[in-house]
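Figure S7 source data.
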Amino acid sequence: MKDIIADRTKLIDASGIRKVFALGATLDDPVNFSIGQPDFDVPEALKEVAIKAIRAGQNSYSQTAGDEILKERIAERVSKEYGWENPAVLVVSGVSGGLLLAFLSLVNPGDEVIVPDPYFVMYKHLVNMLGGKCVFVDSYPDFMLPAEKIADAITDKTKMIILNSPCNPTGMVYSEDQVKAVAEIAAKKDILVLTDEIYERFCYDGECPSIAKYYEKSLVLHGFSKSHAMTGWRLGYVAAHESLKDVIEQMTKIQQYTFVCAPTPFQKAALAALDYDVSDLVDAYRKKRDLLYDGLRDTFELVKPLGAFYAFVKAPDGSTASAFVGKAIANNVLIIPGNVFSEKDTHFRISYATTDEKIRQGVEILRKLV
Ligand code: PMP
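Tokens for the predicted 4'-deoxy-4'-aminopyridoxal-5'-phosphate complex:
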């Protein structure tokens, strides 16, 4: 058979993470610092809601845009947080589903999408697949939001700016001043901002300000995967100001012919999750952050992570990140090279979403490798 695979698949390179997984599979009980999901399970009360919904026969399609009551509750929350009246809401199959629908609805071939580097991998590959182009703005070495560089990167082809705070992979949380500065820049040029706030609950030192509070042309993505450990339940939502209603409508139209709807029984659990207090879990994760940061700070160059559950650490002098990752894996510690999330190969990502004991072990091993 001749080559039957569509050309667009060649625009996606999953080799970086795959290599780590392949190497990891050969290890016996490794320190796994590579996983992007919490090490706790879905809270029991939320499992019960999902089980009840399944038993009660709530197993068929929901409305394309999501369960009406869930949408109303999300709209209430969004109105309160960002001061938006009548926001448009779409319940999606995880933030990943929301990202795909957003890019399918917005990105034309040739469009430019401004993304601070390092970035969450999916943005680059989805934008590429649609014929768009990511314009990366360097946020090294402090990983703060590079507002001026963003302003300089805007051209006639700019379709949107992507923000992700707290950030995967850097653990950085953008300050109010930084998001306000980008809001001003975007407003001046009338450019849409897509803000991925999936880690909003994992915010350890004060506020995690959303640009949506300062800029109406923000498309906000939230999810339940991280905050409630529901990565396999595939639940998230997209919200926008009334003035961006058409974007949500187009995304809903595409959802109708792709995902159809987010999983119905888990939408019931998501409703309960909106009221479920995860502050104990966040407190435990703050302690994990401290354990990791205090363990590495005198041996490695790293910025203190303020949110999410990642640290982005500079490889020791004289070593590329990929070479150092190889060394770490050979010593039973799984980490991901920074070039999976960046145009540079200088740092590596640690996910500290694991037990305190494994964090201690991993820190000890990494320190010895320098
Ligand atoms: N955005 C970011 C920044 C992420 O880290 C992830 C998960 N790794 C997602 C979106 C996707 O999450 P989900 O599809 O499970 O909601």
